[in-house]
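1st attempt posting a full record on here, be nice pls
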Amino acid sequence: MVPKSTGKVNHPLLAPPFQATQGIMHQTLTCIALPAPDGLRRGIMPPRDAIPILPAGFMGALPPADRLFVPPALSRAIGTDAGEAVPALNAADMGAWHGLSLKALPPADLARWVGDASFAPPGGESRDSLLRRVATWLAALPATPARLLALADATTVRALAIAALGGDGAMMARLDIAPLTRTVLTRHATWRLATSGVPLP
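the predicted structure (as tokens):
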């Protein structure tokens, strides 16, 4: 005799965290890592609010989305109608180091910046602070609409990926996300990292 259905799903693959959740729609946040500032390739810290040079046709080739989020400086450059300005998507604040050559920085401070996620340049922010800033914004995103798109510095995209994983600032040194790549986060009940650092077509 076939037992009467109780309306409950008891399949092992639907156990937490894959349990079906009513009332929460599937959501995607596609994060596009912007081109690196030109000076960075020459070992120079970019100026504050540096605007990257976008490749020809970049904006027109973006994936479709219901909302587009961009750093404020980029919003001013491309027009406020093109995307919503979000200060949380700014690149890391390098404080007094903005515009300086890496060779001009105190070697001990540079070593701490590379190896210590809690270290901040004078007047700037640490990787821990960057991660908190980004994680707060990510957690506050509304559950609708379904397709979100964010443009940000590669380090900020890396912080978004680590925030989705629930990691800490030290983990940022163990994840490579290059400029001009795509990282996708998905949310049903919580944010998850679907893909990271995929080169743009």
